[in-house]
Design a protein that fits this description.
Largest sheet: none
Shape: globular
CATH class: Mainly Alpha
Organism: Prauserella oleivorans
Number of helices: 10
CATH topology: Tetracycline Repressor, domain 2
Helix content: over 70%
InterPro entries: Homeodomain-like_sf, HTH_TetR
Strand content: under 5%
Pfam families: TetR_N
Oligomer: single chain
Protein name: TetR/AcrR family transcriptional regulator
CATH superfamily: Tetracycline Repressor, domain 2
Number of domains: 1
Keywords: DNA-binding, Transcription, Transcription regulation
Number of strands: 0
Length: 214
C-alpha cells in the first residue's frame, strides 16, 4: 500500500515517445512534464535538501535555460510538481471513484480511495516540501494556494459522488480523513507498524459510517 520505490515514481511518467512530428505546444508540454516528473523523482529518492536544479534538469534531459522558460523559481516548480502528481493520481482513481458502492459502504470505500491517493509517492513528496516550507517563506507561499485548491477540487468531486449525504457531513468526513491519512503517511515514513496503520484506518471507517448513519 505504501512505497517509496523509484520504479513507482518513474511508472507515473507519460510515454510521449514514438511520434515523429510534434507542435511547439506539444514540445513545451512534454518538457514541462519531464521537469515535473524529474522533480518528484528527486524529492522521493533524494529528499528536498539534495534536490538541486542541476539534478532535476539532468534527469529531465532539459537545459537550465529551457527550465527558466517554464518556471520563474525553484519554489514554483516544486509546488507545480505536487499539483501535477496529485492531478495524475486523481485521474487514475476516477474509474474507481465512479464505481463506489451504494449505502454506508460508500463511505468506507471513499476513505480507502483517499488513503491510496494521499499516501505513497504523493505523501513523500509533499511532506518533503512542507517540512522545507516551514523555514522557507517563498516555498510556503507557492505551496499554500496549490494545496488549498487541490483540497477544494477533491472535496467537490467527493460531494458529487456522495449521493444524498448532507454537504456538511461530507466536508467534515473529508477533512478528518485527509488529516488522518497525512498522519498515517508520516507514521509510515518514520517506520511505524503497518498493522497499526491498517487497524486505525479500519476503526476510522467504522466511526465514519456511524457518523453518516446518525
Amino acid at each position: 500500500m505504501y512505497s517509496r520505490s523509484a520504479g513507482q515514481v518513474k511508472g507515473l511518467r507519460v510515454n510521449a515517445t514514438g511520434r515523429g512530428h510534434r507542435t511547439q505546444a506539444e514540445r513545451r508540454a512534454q518538457t514541462r512534464t519531464a521537469l515535473l516528473d524529474a522533480t518528484i523523482e528527486c524529492l522521493v529518492e533524494l529528499g528536498y535538501p539534495r534536490t538541486s536544479m542541476q539534478e532535476i534538469c539532468a534527469r529531465a534531459g532539459v537545459s537550465k535555460g529551457a527550465f527558466q522558460h517554464h518556471f520563474a523559481a525553484k519554489s514554483e516548480l516544486m509546488a507545480a510538481a505536487v499539483e501535477h502528481l496529485t492531478t495524475r493520481l486523481q485521474q487514475q482513481r476516477i474509474p474507481e471513484a465512479e464505481q463506489l458502492p451504494a449505502g454506508p459502504e460508500r463511505v468506507a470505500a471513499a476513505i480507502d480511495l483517499l488513503w491510496e491517493s494521499y499516501s505513497g509517492t504523493l505523501a513523500t513528496a509533499a511532506m518533503e516540501l512542507w517540512i522545507a516550507a516551514r523555514t522557507d517563506p517563498e516555498l510556503r507561499a507557492a505551496m499554500r494556494p496549490i494545496d488549498r485548491a487541490l483540497g477544494r477540487k477533491t472535496l467537490e468531486r467527493l460531494t458529487a459522488l456522495s449521493g444524498d449525504l448532507p454537504r456538511d457531513k461530507v466536508e467534515t468526513l473529508f477533512w478528518l480523513t485527509v488529516n488522518l491519512t497525512r498522519g498515517l503517511a508520516l507514521d509510515a515514513e518514520l517506520g511505524g507498524d503497518p498493522r497499526r496503520r491498517k487497524q486505525l484506518l479500519e476503526e476510522w471507517k467504522r466511526i465514519a459510517m456511524l457518523h453518516v448513519a446518525g
